[in-house]
Amino acid sequence: MLDVAVIIASIREGGTGTMVGRWFLERIERRADMNVDVIDLGRTPLPPLQPARCGDTADAARGLAARIGAADGFVVVTPEYNHAYPAALKLAIDSVRHEWAAKPVGFVSYGGRSGGLRAVEQLRLVFAELHVVSLRDTVSFHLERDRFDAAEPDGADSRGGTGGADDAAKVMLDHLAWWATTLREGRATRPYIR
Ligand SMILES: Cc1cc2nc3c(=O)[nH]c(=O)nc-3n(C[C@H](O)[C@H](O)[C@H](O)COP(=O)(O)O)c2cc1C
C-alpha cells in the first residue's frame, strides 16, 4: 500500500475546495493500492506567519512535517487566486523541508477559464526546489460560473483528452502510483542526496 497525503489548499469556509476535494477523495479512496491522509489546510494547524523569533519551529510545523514525512506521495487540490495558488499552501510548503524530497506530487486544480492551471505551473517551480517530482498529467476544473457539479463535473485532463475528469483522475493516480512505488524503493535502496 502507498501512503498518499491529499492537501486541500483552499481555506475559504464553504468554498469550492470542499466540493472538489470531496469529489477527488471519493475517487482516490476507491483504489486498493492507496491509504489517504487528508491534510485540509483550513483545519490543519499551520505555523504563524510571524514567528516570535526567526528560526522558531512551531509545533504546527513539526506536526505537518511528520505527516509529509509519512507519505509516499502527494496530491494538491488547489484553486487559482490571482494567477497563483493560495497563500496558506505556500506557508504549508515552506514549513516543511526534507520530508518532501524524492517523492511525487499530482495536482487537481480549479478556477475560472484557466482551470487553475496557472497555479499548477507555479507549484511545479516551487516543488522542484524541494526535490519533489511533479506529475505531467493533471485534473482541472473550469468553473466559469463559479459552480461545481459533483454529479457531472466538467473536468479536463492535461492531454486535451475527451474522457473527462474521471479518466483524468485515473491517469494521474496511476502515474502517482508508479512514481511513489519507484521512489520509495529507491529511497530504501540508497539515501537520496539533496
Ligand atoms: C482572491 C481571488 C482571486 C482569484 N483569482 C482568480 C484567477 O486569477 N484566475 C481564475 O481562474 N480564478 C480566480 N479566482 C476564482 C477562484 O479560483 C474560484 O472562485 C474558485 O472556485 C475559488 O475556490 P475556493 O472557493 O475553494 O476558494 C479567484 C478567486 C479569489 C477569491
Would you give an account of this structure?
The protein is an alpha/beta fold and 194 residues long. The protein has a single domain, classed as Flavodoxin domain (Rossmann fold). Helices cover 38% and strands 21% of the residues. The chain has 5 helices and 7 strands. Strands 1, 2, 3, 4, 5, 6 and 7 form a 7-stranded mixed sheet that branches. Helix 1 links the parallel strand 1 and strand 2. The longest helix is centred in the last third of the chain and has 26 residues. It is globular. It starts with a strand and ends in a 5-residue tail after the last helix. 37% of the residues are buried. The mean pLDDT is 91. Flavin mononucleotide (FMN) binds next to helix 1 and strand 4.
Features:
21% strand, Rossmann fold, alpha/beta, globular, 5 helices, binds flavin mononucleotide, 194 residues
User: Main sheet, how many strands, which sense, barrel?
Assistant: 7 strands, mixed
Q: Care to count the β-strands?
A: 7
State the CATH class.
Answer: Alpha Beta
CATH architecture tag? 3-Layer(aba) Sandwich
